[in-house]
Specification:
Length: 413
């Protein structure tokens, strides 16, 4: 079992907070599912505590145990993907609220957005790694023939890795590994050492070993690196010419893979390993496009990885026609008519005042108790949404709301 980070939520929010982030996603206008990410995803961490989520859900071992530890769920989620999981488990959560005699917390559209952004961000950090596995990796990949950690290694004149022991974020070693990758590759070739290939979790395990074994006298102040700034990361992606070869959700070059894909767990380690593993191919592509090798500071690496991580937070625009079919199949139409003339128990879709995905999800969350009671009376099983379905339902609801607005709006007088 992989050891995970144990740090209080208060420390977690304080250490990572204060990072401004505004990133345009989606359509980029009022018709899009939402306009931008919150300025600071860690604000949702405060909501996680204030709304009582922490009473049932832990984050890396800190919090309640009635629900899953959200810091240990290796899911490649999106905004509506997380919302769908919340909906599917709402009856169980309501039963737990009743058992604990807790009032179900209401969430505004803005609060829902920030809370889900916080949950989404948890995959960025991953766990604290396994130091024993880190030692095995360094030996197996022959890293300790050129590097030392504490009293380990130094077969030949070495470059100590002890300086990374105070780095909580793997972004530090990721930047150092990238910047020195060409020189290291040349040295390994000269020494007859095969160039290692790193797995998704290898860097966090190596860091765990460094933290355990490094010389304490070489330690400085613990260096916390906040969640990066995604808007700055987008600038890094452009200014360092990454966009010449790579696209993000279809925008950019096509020489390398599109980097705007969903990832789960140890995101920094995954991307750093991928950059190292594919270094030689990237150097060839840089030469072919006459691009210089882009060195990255630790902050730039953190910002770049944050940008790539959050690039898949926004869901693709759904298909209203598919959403209408789901609306009927899931039994939503049993209580919600499409127009005011329909004899419906719930609010007709055309009268719903939803403009964004967070509007829809917050309303569904806040009215879950009434919907549970209505489903029980109508003898309808609680509908379950599979990944990718919620975006179509939201697109259908928004299309009907917008159509109703055009009919009722008399326009300029």
């Amino acid at each position: 079992m992989r050891p995970c980070m144990r740090i209080s939520l208060t420390v977690l929010v304080a250490a990572i907070g204060g990072v401004g982030m505004v990133l345009s996603v989606g359509a980029g206008d009022s018709s899009g599912p939402f306009l931008s990410l919150p300025e600071n995803p860690m604000v949702g961490g405060r909501l996680f505590m204030e709304k009582g989520c922490v009473a049932c859900h832990a984050v890396h071992g800190v919090g309640g145990t009635a629900g899953p530890d959200l810091g240990r769920v290796p899911a490649a989620w999106s905004f509506l993907g997380i919302a769908g999981v919340m909906w599917n488990h709402s009856p169980k959560m309501d039963a737990e609220f009743r058992r604990r005699r807790i009032t179900r917390p209401e969430l505004s559209s803005d609060e829902m957005f920030k809370l889900i952004a916080f949950v989404y961000s948890l995959n960025y950090f991953g766990g604290m790694g396994d130091p024993d596995e880190g030692e095995r990796l360094l030996l197996r990949k022959r890293c300790l023939e050129c590097h030392s950690v504490g009293n380990h290694g130094a077969i030949r004149e070495s470059v100590p890795l002890d300086r990374f022991q105070t780095n909580v974020s793997p972004a530090y070693i990721a930047a150092a590994l990238w910047n020195a990758s060409r020189e290291m590759t040349a040295e390994m070739r000269q020494q007859g050492i095969p160039r290692p290939v790193y797995g998704e979790h290898d860097l966090v395990d190596i860091l765990a070993f460094i933290r355990r074994e490094a010389n304490p006298e070489d330690a400085g102040t613990t260096a916390y690196l906040p969640l990066g700034n995604a808007i700055n990361g987008a600038e890094v992606f452009r200014n360092k010419a990454c966009i010449r070869c790579h696209a993000v959700r279809g925008e950019g070059g096509n020489i390398g893979p599109d980097l705007g894909v969903s990832r789960s767990g140890d995101v920094v380690s995954q991307l750093a390993a991928a950059m190292w593993n594919h270094g030689p191919e990237m150097w060839q592509a840089m030469a072919a496009t006459q691009s210089s090798f882009p060195e990255l500071t630790t902050t730039e690496m953190s910002d770049l990885i944050t940008y790539l991580h959050f690039s898949s937070f926004a869901d693709p625009e759904g298909d209203p026609m598919v959403g209408q079919r789901l609306f009927e199949e899931k039994g939503c139409g049993t209580c919600h008519g499409l127009v005011p003339e329909d004899d419906s128990l719930g609010l007709p879709v055309a009268e719903m005042e939803f403009r964004t995905a967070p509007d829809v999800i917050a309303a569904m969350w806040n009215h879950t108790l009434e919907m549970e009671q209505a489903a029980e009376v109508a003898k309808i099983a609680w509908p379950q949404f599979r990944p990718g379905e919620m975006e179509h339902l939201v697109a259908f609801i928004r299309s009907r709301v917008e159509a109703g607005s055009r009919v009722t709006d008399p326009g300029p007088q």
